[in-house]
Amino acid sequence: MEMGLVSKDSSWWVFTLPAFFGSQRLLDGYVFFSFVMAVVSLALLTWTFAVGGVAWKNGRNRKGQMPIPGPRGLPVFGSLLTLSRGLAHRSLATMAWSGGNTQLMAFSLGSTPVVVASDPHTAREILTSPHFADRPIKQSAKSLMFSRAIGFSPNGTYWRLLRRIASSHLFSPRRISAHEVGRQRDCTIMLRNIEAEQKLHGFVSPRKHLQFAALNNIMGGVFGKRYDGENDVTELKELKEMVKEGFELLGAFNWSDYLPWLSYFYDPFRINERCQKLVPRVRKLVKCIIEDHRHRDSEKLSDNADFVDVLLSLEGEEKLQEDDMVAVLWEMIFRGTDTTALLTEWIMAEMVLHPDVQAKLHSEIHGAVGSSGSITDADVAKLPYLQAVVKETLRIHPPGPLLSWARLSTSDVQLSNGMLIPANTTAMVNMWAIAHDPRVWEDPLKFRPERFLEADVDVRGSDLRLAPFGAGRRVCPGKNLGLVTVSLWVAKLVLHFEWVPETAHPLDLNEVLKLSCEMKHPLCAVAVGRGGVPF
Ligand code: HEM
């Protein structure tokens, strides 16, 4: 199926140039000089007149009654240099706030026209519009087969089928509760590992434990396979390496996504080459797991069947080809592991920074479960302060500050403020900017979970003041699973340990934006066992 703009092959003209100029060699001096001069003049001319940058030339931003404002950026590159390094969500927020362009701001990433909304009203109009139900696809995601997975499939029959299968078999409340046993088991192993590390070093860096628990949790629910770190060592090592490589490739800022001609000269991260090496490894591992499932006794699908069982049981029009199954299964690892682990790490960092909040949270949890130590999803759902702590962390540190992957308009979209977003425009929502805007949130920089006790705010996509899972038909289908997992794990981490600062590794809330926004320096803290409560 034809995918988004970014990946279109528009380089054919490079090869026709020699014939056009009557020369046998592209690098003939005269041809080359004329070509460079023509490009430079054209770029300067379009740049001079284009608000929003080169990709908005010919008045593309003035199609509605109200023009879309925005920075001009640099000729050819637009705002690429500004956004390719540092924290894009913060740079965009500063640009929008200083120019008064929070409703909508147009800018160019090379030849790609982009708009970004930094206010709840416009964000809602974009995310819930049926004309914004596609996503532009990065070259790395395409090479890694994600164009056949849920997140990047174009809005259409295939994508609807995948969403339906996932909603009823992986993310339905019944399935989520059937997999609670696994969630609890992964957490118990994590608590033991934390206790062991604390004994060994006198402090703990929870990230690796959280990542292992999150990986096992998704592997258990999706592939029906868990690793214990002692058996299957080689396979686990291979899986971890593949996941790490995949994250790096998907998270890397690839200039060629926005300047397609650049890929002929410049690929500093060797993205294409590395993707081509990774794909056969992924296929081999996932197909091996699928084969294992095929050879199992076929029994009626039970509630705690894993997702591979479900996909294999589909019949008729719903039946997926093997490569599509690989893509869908592989995507779940990428979507489900780092978001959950990194959000939990941010929450624990805030607990270390705010001992008063931690004490209040502990008292709520302890009050609900006593010293039995057994806390369930059902208990967690009844703990308002815990929910408030999770929401406040999602507000201050949304794992996808720009809502992870953008949307693409499939036709002209008229907004209620008079602006018109033309077809084939990439749209982002700066959730970080909305969540840090003093006009939307009182004292936005202050970590104060109580604000969510004073006013009930739904974070699952209906209130755009805080929609860290997106909204509309492309809203995150894993939001309930993510929230249940994070809430349970935080409850247990706080019930069993008191988390206090580690003087040799001072807590640092600086961020780094990769596929998700994570702590630049992983959290290190002392986990003081509270004693008496069994894991
Ligand atoms: C804290 C946890 C999580 C956060 C903050 C999060 C956030 C997001 C966001 C912002 C989007 C884009 C939504 C939009 O465009 O409106 C998204 C999409 C998606 N997420 Fe999540 N997510 C989380 C957990 C999960 C989990 C656990 C899974 C699955 C195991 C998952 C699977 C997906 C998928 C498949 C999509 C693509 C949906 C589509 O395009 O139709 N997510 N997520």
UniProtKB/TrEMBL annotation:
Family matches, as PROSITE patterns: CYTOCHROME_P450
Q: Which domain of life is it from?
A: Eukaryota
Cofactor dependence is on: heme
Q: What is this protein called?
A: Cytochrome P450
Which family, according to the similarity comment? Belongs to the cytochrome P450 family.
Q: List all membrane-crossing ranges.
A: 30-56
CDD domains from the xrefs?
A: CYP78
Report the source organism.
Rubroshorea leprosula
Q: Name one GO molecular function term.
A: iron ion binding
Residues that coordinate or bind heme:
476
UniProt xrefs under InterPro entries: Cyt_P450 (IPR001128), Cyt_P450_CS (IPR017972), Cyt_P450_E_grp-I (IPR002401), Cyt_P450_sf (IPR036396), Cytochrome_P450_78A (IPR051996)
Q: List GO BP terms, alphabetically.
A: reproductive structure development
Keywords from UniProt, A to Z, are:
Developmental protein, Growth regulation, Heme, Iron, Membrane, Metal-binding, Monooxygenase, Oxidoreductase, Transmembrane, Transmembrane helix
Q: What taxonomic ancestry is recorded?
A: Eukaryota, Viridiplantae, Streptophyta, Embryophyta, Tracheophyta
